[in-house]
Amino acid sequence: MIAVDTRVYRLGEFRSFDSAGARFLYLVPAGAIFAVDSTVGKLIECLAPGQLPHEQLVDTLAAGGLSIDDAEELIEEMYHAGVIFADGSTPEPPQKLPDVFPIQTLVMNLTNQCNLSCQYCYEFGEDKIATPEGKKKFMDIETAKASVDFLLGQSGDRRSIHITFFGGETLMNFPLLKQVVAYGNERAKEQERHIDFSLTTNATLLTPSIIEFLSEHRIGVTVSMDGPKEMHDHLRVFANGKGSYDIIEPKVRALIQNHRTRPITARVTLTSGVSNVIRIFRHLKQDLGFHEVGFAPVTTSPNQLYAINATGMDSVLDQFHTLADEYLEYALRGESHGFSNVSDTLAELCQGVNKSHPCGAGLGLLGVGPSGDLAPCHRFVDSDAHALGHISTGIDKEKQSDFLTRGHIDSKYDCHTCWARPLCAGGCHHEAFVRYGDTGHPNLHYCDWIRDWTETCLKVYGAIAAKNPEFLQQFAERKTAE
Amino acid sequence: MRHMRPLNKKAARIDNYVASRIEDVVGLQDRPAPNQRPHVPMGCTLMFSPGWEVDASGGTAGLCQPVERDIYDCYATCYWPAQVPDHMNDAPDWTAKCASATKDWRNLDLVFP
């Protein structure tokens, strides 16, 4: 501990932003958000040119109109909060990963087969990393049951666990899905635990009885859909090149109308030809009635024709801003808007996350392929190079450790000076591999966009906190409550 | 904190931490941070006995008066040889102005041997 009067202060690491006429600080090492008064602004101004010893800082603040006592108190508060540092004081380094980390979510790729041939697909497209040759195309019941048992066994004392069904096209193996739901519920009940399910589908195979089953068992549904017909059919096509919109449109409407137990989400992949975000959002949210719509630019190597270039991404971001403004208007009225890119970020900001890794892949989440191979997540399933073991033999600790060490924020030197790292942590492991050939490489191609988007969401958060803080209550609880 | 208002969970934790470092008076209803506890009197509170109270640290150094050497109960009812207001020899009139301890305890002055 340094004696107060010999401290030499400098600014800590934070992002200062204004919103709704108020000033806020985002403390980077912590992920904390504060509304601050004007005296904090004065303190920051004093230290902006460089460091100052205690007495001199007090004098400068006093010259600016603060009493000596007030200046002392302000400095003490800011010092302990980590807004300003003194001499050797720096934030503690991130915690080391615990040796045993409970798994909470298992993504089960029920099949690696798909009835569509979307050109941008990361599983089958030009940039694919999967090596499914010679492996099972459909998961069998033994592997599925072993997967459920594996999840229950590896989830430690978590009372609530989650299974996401994935593909290929998930519904091509719907009979297995039904069996897994029954088996999972039975096993979880025996252990007095809660299990819940969700799935991602292209919606082509939905039927009234499937929808009824999904609703009855409270299975969350995400539909991969790219917007109105001309945009959706641009790349989401059958093997003969025919678009899939006309097939899925009535099925999606039926799903939204009849699945009443969970919100239905659309997940849009943005490409060079499909980047009219606002039009897509209006169609999916207002015309079709999805509860939430989320967007992500396609994962691709930069030379693919459908890759979005920098100009295209700027336009995407402009449209994101428009929807974020709209989201704020809704939030101030206490209404749900449905743009999940904002709500997902607000949820993380509310918790004050400070991530060691960009996501839970390989940590609290694993993917399992039809053959029982374990992978960091669904995007790596069936890739021999990225397998992390097998359902029958468990996690290969050495490979898992290698994956997590490379993906850790500590290993990503480019990120260490970035204020957006608590939320981004270098970005998707899979995207990094496709772009740079290394899952641990920071996704440098979208740093500016991430910072822009994070700042946008911080401003939305600040404005809501200032004007309608009750709205943020919904984010206060973690998605998985227990 | 006076100058910053916490807006998310992490900020609330920092707020608690800062309070524990710079604020020495807290309301019990505010759930003090762990390093500020205990903020409860630990002495006998069923009867009024000046000098038996303890301060927040469990000691008596933070009390104003009487100090531990002038414990009222020892003077009146339970003489022990080391106490300073010794009613038998040195301070026979120490409680002369204190007819009722609950009302008049302020009249118990410090006694210097």
Radius of gyration of chain A (Å): 24 Å
Residue runs with pLDDT of under 50 for 5 or more positions of chain A = none
Helix and strand run of chain B:
EHHH
**Cα radius of gyration of chain B in angstroms:** 20 Å
Largest sheet of chain A: 8 strands, mixed
Largest sheet of chain B: none
Helix and strand content put the structural class of chain A at alpha/beta
CATH topology of the domain at 4-86 in chain A: Outer Surface Protein A, domain 3
Mean pLDDT metric of chain A: 93
Query: Total strand count of chain A, please?
Result: 16
Mean pLDDT of chain B: 71
Query: Oligomerization state of this entry?
Result: heterodimer
The portion of residues forming beta strands of chain A comes to 15-25%
Supply the CATH class of the largest domain in chain B. Answer: Few Secondary Structures
The first-to-last residue Cα distance of chain B is 46 Å
Tell me the name of the CATH class of the domain at 4-86 in chain A: Alpha Beta
Structural category of chain B is mainly alpha
Question: What does this 3D model show about the protein?
Answer:
The complex is a heterodimer of chains A (about 475) and B (about 110). Chain A is built from 16 helices and 16 strands. Chain A is of the alpha/beta class. Chain A has a domain at about 5-85: Alpha-Beta Complex (Outer Surface Protein A, domain 3). In chain A, helix 2 (about 55-65) packs across helix 3 (about 70-80). The two termini of chain A are about 40 Å apart. Chain B has about 110 residues and is mainly alpha-helical. Chain B folds into 2 domains: about 5-40, no CATH class; about 40-105, Quinohemoprotein amine dehydrogenase. Chain B is about 20% helix and about 5% strand. Chain B contains 3 helices and 1 strand. Chain B has helices at about 10-20, 70-75, 100-105, and one strand at about 5. Mean pLDDT of chain B is about 70; it is low at about 40-45. Chains A and B meet through strand 3, strand 4, helix 3, helix 11 and helix 15 of A and strand 1 and helix 1 of B. Strand 4 (about 30-35) of chain A pairs antiparallel with strand 1 (about 5) of chain B.
